[in-house]
Amino acid sequence: MTKEIYTAALIIIGDEILSGRTHDSNTPWIAENLNEIGVRLYEVRVIPDDRQKIIKTVNEMRKAHDYVFTTGGIGPTHDDITAESIAAAFGVELELNDAAYGELLAYYKNESEITPSRKKMAMIPKGATLVDNPVSGAPGIKIENVYVFAGVPRIMQAMFDAIKHTLTGGKPVETRSVSCNLAESIVADGLAEIQSRYAEISIGSYPKYQNGKFGTALVLRGIDEEALAKATQEVADLVISLGEDHPIIA
Amino acid sequence: MTKEIYTAALIIIGDEILSGRTHDSNTPWIAENLNEIGVRLYEVRVIPDDRQKIIKTVNEMRKAHDYVFTTGGIGPTHDDITAESIAAAFGVELELNDAAYGELLAYYKNESEITPSRKKMAMIPKGATLVDNPVSGAPGIKIENVYVFAGVPRIMQAMFDAIKHTLTGGKPVETRSVSCNLAESIVADGLAEIQSRYAEISIGSYPKYQNGKFGTALVLRGIDEEALAKATQEVADLVISLGEDHPIIA
């Protein structure tokens, strides 16, 4: 049995995002890569490095969505509490993973180099499997439908690429856009009328404000390519009828 | 009675963020501006343009935090459903707001220009007050501890600036950082020892990976400036003792 719509949630574990110090760039990357395989990023939660908050959020999200991805908190330092929090969320113990320990040994060459902090990176929830980290020491973790990734974008992307082929999705959502120099309120009535005739297409209107002038990006999304093409043409015709000379259709 | 810690949640209402098309830049701006007045951004939720999801999220967040900010979905188009969803969350009706209607009239000059779509921007939840929008037509809304802002960063920032002086906060969290070229796992044990002696300071360790080399940013946060200065000095001494020649202390 195949489903029509597969959804995912992203949980960003990071005091550094909530303090404003670090700007998240993982959300758009994951959104686009999930969409390519027909999985919709349905929600994102940015939460602090707080054990109880991580446990509660993971348990809520893993019941609500096909896939859950977490980023951040899997390193060797005292503030890296994701693995132990995930174990607690699933009600299992952390245990030394032989393969992860072997990778640490291969990386650091000598057992005496495996300090308690480094050993922590080989402790994973019982029942979890490893996600390869081709960039640095700490592997990612997969337990049921939850994928635990690093927060550093380059490492997160490598981990996602390593498991991407194992994810099941539906039909990817296709996107078209019509950009114009008209204010939103000029197109609103006509746009609502088009939307009312295309239930399967979602039409979004996003105002832009640049160089003291208003403009609007009209974005159409759907999995039915024929309906999407027809609706896009109607939106383009609408903005032209309202006085737009050069709508940019993409 | 003054509290020690004030918290806020940010709810980003936006299919365009979840599709990956638009990159959110409101989170770091709001985080920094809240911190200046002693309010901590405790969590961020990015949710779709879905009425039930907005209602549920707003009701959860407004009970959990001192302040809730929403961005997105307050314009004139069919996909702008924030105001009606906020009204539903509070169990009140939407009503035509005289002041908002007056602003629309002033902006569009003539009553015949107030199309149904434009009039929608003057419909606000019963009991709410307006937040001035000095940039474009649609005002923001305040109802109890919930602030409903535009999604366009320039407009959101103007709305925040308009209400900033009305927010109550505690002592702002101060931040110091020590950047070094050591891998996280080298500093981990010593860092945990320092953290164990400074319960009131939160020490975060953030790996960097640039030009094929690892580095680590050690970030210290707290409201006690003296403790913060002492802990920062200890962290700097630690990385120097571990072989770092030029830690960057900021």
Characterise the protein shown here.
2 copies of one chain form a homodimer. Chain A is an alpha/beta fold. Chain A has 2 domains: 6-166, Molybdenum Cofactor Biosythetic Enzyme, Chain A; 174-249, Alpha-Beta Plaits (2-Layer Sandwich). Chain A is built from 9 helices and 12 strands. Chain A has helices spanning 15-18, 26-36, 51-64, 82-90, 98-108, 116-120, 153-163, 184-197, 225-241; strands at 6-13, 39-47, 67-71, 94-96, 123-125, 129-131, 140-143, 146-149, 174-180, 202-210, 213-222, 248-249. In chain A, the strands form 3 sheets. Chain A has a 6-stranded mixed sheet with strand order 2-1-3-8-7-6, sandwiched between helices. In chain A, α3 packs across α4 (82-90). The first copy, chain A, is elongated and about 75 Å long. Chain A starts with 5 loop residues before the first strand and ends with a strand. The interface between A and B is large, with 68 and 68 residues.
Topology readout:
The structure is a homodimer of 250-residue chains.
Chain A: E1 6-13, H1 15-18, H2 26-36, E2 39-47, H3 51-64, E3 67-71, H4 82-90, E4 94-96, H5 98-108, H6 116-120, E5 123-125, E6 129-131, E7 140-143, E8 146-149, H7 153-163, E9 174-180, H8 184-197, E10 202-210, E11 213-222, H9 225-241, E12 248-249
Parallel strand pairs in A: 1-2, 1-3, 3-8
Antiparallel strand pairs in A: 4-5, 6-7, 7-8, 9-11, 9-12, 10-11
